[in-house]
From TrEMBL:
<keyword id="KW-0915">Sodium</keyword>
<dbReference type="InterPro" id="IPR031312">
    <property type="entry name" value="Na/sul_symport_CS"/>
</dbReference>
<feature type="transmembrane region" description="Helical">
    <location>
        <begin position="17"/>
        <end position="39"/>
    </location>
</feature>
<feature type="transmembrane region" description="Helical">
    <location>
        <begin position="360"/>
        <end position="377"/>
    </location>
</feature>
<feature type="region of interest" description="Disordered">
    <location>
        <begin position="169"/>
        <end position="196"/>
    </location>
</feature>
<dbReference type="Pfam" id="PF00939">
    <property type="entry name" value="Na_sulph_symp"/>
</dbReference>
<dbReference type="GO" id="GO:0005886">
    <property type="term" value="C:plasma membrane"/>
</dbReference>
<feature type="transmembrane region" description="Helical">
    <location>
        <begin position="217"/>
        <end position="243"/>
    </location>
</feature>
<keyword id="KW-0769">Symport</keyword>
<feature type="compositionally biased region" description="Low complexity">
    <location>
        <begin position="182"/>
        <end position="191"/>
    </location>
</feature>
<keyword id="KW-1133">Transmembrane helix</keyword>
<keyword id="KW-0472">Membrane</keyword>
<dbReference type="GO" id="GO:0015382">
    <property type="term" value="F:sodium:sulfate symporter activity"/>
</dbReference>
<feature type="transmembrane region" description="Helical">
    <location>
        <begin position="59"/>
        <end position="77"/>
    </location>
</feature>
<keyword id="KW-0813">Transport</keyword>
<keyword id="KW-0406">Ion transport</keyword>
<feature type="transmembrane region" description="Helical">
    <location>
        <begin position="323"/>
        <end position="340"/>
    </location>
</feature>
Length: 573
């Protein structure tokens, strides 16, 4: 603390000390993340930075209302198995060729992750993927067993013919026919040698190295696509929500970020990264054979038929679409359309109906309306039998109950985000943000693209060892004043940094989807490091590409906006 106080004024030093303590505890996870997030509520009043009532108000924002509505949707989707139906249907549409099957799983997982949490998406899809992978292996084993049976029968039939020939021909002719049985024995030796290689290389679990590679490929595809899909919507991952709330709080005059604008700039990034990740993982584990991928008019292999059968059986188990699924799907579609059309930017949105109160209606308003519908619309009638033997309805059960909602609601994330808002308010109130900005102003001499690249790489590295919400919460109070100090549009630095916060692809402990797929036992840490390093590099490259192509004109990034404070002409002590 004394070291920090020597570098900056007293109140700024006290706030920096709180920020340092919270950051260390978040990175090391010595305390639960949500408990650490409560420390600003304790330390800010003690240091005289903010009164307790003001700190407490930071722990519940518009973000939390949006989160509640989204969790209501996610609860209903998972309760009525709509997520499984969507995933299986999308996989059935792309076919069962191994490469296309992988892309199908990635596409369906990414789509679900746009609306559900990355963790629940990975946890839901992985059992289906595991069933398909094991069916591929067993089908291949059955096919090889059938081929061996056919081969042995053919060899036995050949031996019988040879014995007949031996009886009928002379001894000289007989010597010429002796190699025939020898050939069959040689084949048997080759088969035995192949079996030994299989056992010594892959063990009992995998019949061949290719089977093991298929399992690795499918696991990593699910982990990475569940993360990539979350990039596309503000509600897709907690880091997007945290950034959105921080940004709107710090820059209330900027109304450029909403559900529609976020989707417009992030969707191309997610699609490009998903395709590049698919190509990279396919090449890394199975090779990339274009001729085999785009084959036309050829019959399906045994493996492909087995995959198709498993997926078809899983889909048929769901039965016809039920009333509850239809209602959930309708609410889901209506909510998405209302989010997109609220204030799309290129046309007048429905928020213009409330022009008397500009800025009052937000995405959380839509989410709350949808969330309330899940508690109001009946899912089924509750009946009882009267003394006369009649069955009468006495009540109804809603689509979701409060108990079910509570089991899905991530209260730890809600508290964690609240702690981040309190930290940001403290940095603003104490003047620490301005002090940091003044000290970072010399970086303005660097090219903008280099500053963006450095910040993106820094965030990508930190998020591998710290949780994604903690990373964005720690860095936002640093990167915002940096952009203001060097007179660069804050979105130019904050948008790529926020997206890169989700690029935790390298380690099993980096994020929950990685841990879920790692628990199935197909992967080693070195597999994730090799694959994740490539996806991390691709992710940063695609984000950089987007920032200097289609995203730049959307937000006019080369112009310093009027809604951001101008620190260039201000004197900061």
């Amino acid at each position: 603390f004394h070291l920090v106080s020597c570098l900056c004024p007293l109140q700024e030093a006290e706030c920096a000390y709180v920020l340092f303590v919270v950051a260390i505890l978040w990175i090391t996870e010595a305390l639960p993340l949500s408990i650490t997030a409560l420390l600003p509520g304790l330390m800010f009043p003690m240091f005289g930075i903010m009164p307790s009532t003001q700190v407490a108000s930071a722990y519940f924002k518009d973000f939390h209302l949006l989160l509640i509505g989204v969790i209501c949707l996610a609860t209903s989707i998972e309760k009525w198995n709509l997520h499984r139906r969507i995933a299986l249907r999308m996989v059935m549409m792309v076919g069962v060729n191994p490469a296309w099957l992988t892309l199908g799983f990635m596409s369906s997982t990414a789509f679900l992750s746009m609306w559900l949490s990355n963790t629940s998406t990975a946890a839901m899809v992985m059992p289906i993927v595991e069933a398909v992978a094991q069916q591929i292996i067993s089908a291949e084993a059955e096919a090889e067993a059938t081929q061996m049976t056919y081969f042995n029968e053919s060899a036995t039939h050949g031996l019988e013919i040879d014995e007949t020939v031996i009886e009928q021909e002379t001894n000289g002719r007989t010597e010429k026919t002796k190699p025939v049985p020898g050939n069959s024995n040689g084949s048997g030796k080759v088969s035995s040698k192949m079996e030994m290689e299989k056992n010594s290389v892959t063990g009992a679990k995998y019949r061949s190295k290719k089977d093991h590679m298929i399992c690795k490929l499918m696991c990593l595809c699910i982990a990475y696509s569940s993360t990539i899909g979350g990039l596309t919507t503000i509600t897709g991952t907690s880091t997007n929500l945290i950034f959105s709330e921080h940004f709107n709080t710090r820059y209330p005059e900027c109304r450029c970020l909403n559900f529609g604008s976020w989707f417009m700039f992030s969707f191309p990034i997610a699609v490009i990264l998903l395709l590049l990740s698919w190509i990279w993982l396919q090449w890394l584990f199975l090779g990339f054979n274009f001729k085999q991928m785009f084959k036309c008019g050829k019959t399906k292999t045994v493996n492909e038929k087995a995959c198709a059968e498993v997926i078809k059986q899983e889909y048929e188990k769901l039965g016809p679409m039920r009333y509850q699924e239809i209602v959930t799907l309708v609410i889901f579609i209506v909510m998405a359309l209302l989010w997109f059309s609220r204030d799309p930017g290129f046309v007048t949105g429905w928020s213009a109906l409330f022009s008397e109160y500009p800025g009052f209606v937000t995405d959380s308003t839509v989410a709350l309306v949808a969330g309330l519908l899940f508690f109001l619309i009946p899912a089924k009638k509750l009946t009882k039998t009267t003394s006369a033997g009649d069955v009468v309805a006495f009540d109804f059960s809603p689509l979701i109950t409060w108990k079910e909602f509570q089991s899905f609601m991530p209260w730890d994330i809600a508290i964690l985000v609240g702690g981040g808002f309190a930290l940001a308010d403290g940095c603003q109130e104490s003047g620490l943000s301005g002090w940091i900005g003044s000290k970072l102003s010399p970086l303005g001499s660097l090219p903008v693209w280099l500053i963006i690249l450095i910040s993106s790489l820094m965030v990508t590295s930190l998020t591998e060892v710290a949780s994604n919400p903690a990373t964005i919460t720690i860095l936002f109070p640093i990167l915002s004043p940096l952009a203001e100090a060097i007179h660069v549009n804050p979105l130019h630095i904050l948008l790529p940094s926020t997206l890169c916060t989700s690029f935790a692809f390298l380690l099993p402990v980096a994020n929950p989807p990685n841990a879920i797929v790692f628990s199935y036992g197909h992967l080693k840490v070195i597999d994730m490091v090799k694959a994740g390093l490539g996806v991390n590099i691709l992710g940063v490259a695609v984000v950089m590409l987007g920032m200097f192509t289609w995203i730049e004109p959307m937000f006019d990034l080369y112009t310093y906006p009027s809604w951001a404070p101008d620190l260039v002409n201000q004197t900061i002590p």
